Amino acid sequence: MELVLVRDYFSKGTNGTLWLQQQQLCFTIERPWKNNERNRSCIPEGKYPLKKRYSQRFGWHVLIDKVLNRSLILIHPANYALKELNGCIAPVTSLTGEGIGSYSKKAFEKLRSIVFSCFERGEEVNLIIKSKKDEYTRTYSETHPKNI
């Protein structure tokens, strides 16, 4: 299974929309892009395998694996990126500002249920992260081919 996260970058945070097979699952919040700086930046765009993980703090949650020069990048509940995230991704039900959302636990439970069901069936789950700008450019170029 592949989840696709399409991001919008802002100075105070990164907002995204998470998709599964062209169906919107939820929104996301992250820290702003700071050149992949540990604990200060969202992670780079790319394709990442997801894993099941348990911790005392978050219980069962999702680990984003194989992030260049980073470790312990998680998907877990949070409503305010700058105060509650250190490079992780938080699903939210709605976006209320740059890197700010609401009802994260509800959105996280929905996402976790879908991802963990795939793990139980032995399926691999990957997260593809891309920019909304790139997504718009690709869609526009497909619908407006150049005349040569």
UniProtKB/TrEMBL annotation:
Organism: Faecalibacter rhinopitheci
Alphabetized Pfam families for the sequence: DUF5675 (PF18925)
Annotated InterPro entries: DUF5675
Name this protein carries in UniProt: DUF5675 domain-containing protein
Domain DUF5675: 5-115
